[in-house]
Amino acid sequence: MLHQLWPTNIWVEHNFLSDEMLKSFHQAILPHIEKYNGVPEIFNKDIKIPNLFLEQDESIQFFKKQVKDRLYGFLQVEGFIKSEELAIEINVFPRKFVYGDRARPHTHRGIDYVGVFYVDLDVVDSNENTCDRDDGRLLLIDPIAQRSRGLNHQMLFQLQPVPNLFIIHPAYMFHESEMYKGNKDRILVVINARVKDRQQSNSFIEL
User: Fold this and answer.
1) So what's the pLDDT on residue 131?
2) What is the secondary structure of 37-93 as a DSSP string?
3) Which residues contact 10 (CB under 8 A, 6 or more apart)?
4) What pLDDT was estimated at residue 136?
5) What's the pLDDT score for residue 44?
């Protein structure tokens, strides 16, 4: 009997917020963008990455509820036992990309899931199915690096960033953002989430 084991799940949702809520959310996060400069805190202990969900703005708290709902839905699909009883720890912060900015292929170690929400940007890429030209896309890369090219699959799952697009995927997936070619700032929100282990969290001690 043939079994397909361990598929990789992703969540892609357009029109995540209403137009009015999106405008309010955009204005609410703008003052917080410059707090994050892209340098990992492991290299500079003075850097403190902000957490947008600590802000009490109505639109931010509404966004928080939406993210929470999607994350618990994602855990259910992933097959967690009694996923509704799990505690999720999360860090959320806004970022800004200007013309020429990109993110090289990377993963997020130490967490379970990564999300991104595109708030505002110029949609200037063609979204053509090609790996030969930078086109501003978000690329999710097949985690099984040596999977046969003869299979009916793509090594890259390509997404065209547009305003009001929400995405969740496992943190182990390599992903990259191609060079942004718009004139308007690309405003987005990064979501890092991890599941608190209820079985072993109280059994470990520090060495």
Assistant:
1) 64
2) -S--GGG-TT-----GGG---HHHHHHHHHHHHHHHHHHHHHT-TTGGG-EEEEEEE
3) 140, 157, 167, 168, 169, 170, 173
4) 87
5) 65
> Minimal CA–CA distance to 27: which of 49, 54, 55?
55
Per-residue model confidence (pLDDT) at position 66:
98
Rounded CA gap, 150 and 83, in Å?
Answer: 36
The answer to whether the pTM exceeds 0.85 is yes
Exposure string of 56-82, with b = 16+ CB inside 10 Å and e = fewer, is ebebbeebbebbeebbeebbeeeeeee
**Angle, CA of 79, 85 and 86, to the nearest 5°:** 70
* pLDDT one-digit tens code per residue, 193-205: 999 877 666 777 7
State both tokens at 88: 């999720």
In this prediction, residues 100-125 reach a mean pLDDT of: 92
pLDDT reported for residue 47 = 66
Return the sign of the alpha-carbon dihedral for residues 75, 81, 83, 87: negative
> What per-residue confidence (pLDDT) applies to 21?
98
- Joined together, the tokens standing for residue 98 give 């200007």
Give CA–CA dist 81/59, Å, rounded. Answer: 32
Instruction: Name the amino acid, one letter, at 76.
Output: Q
Handedness of CA 62, 64, 69, 70 (dihedral sign): positive
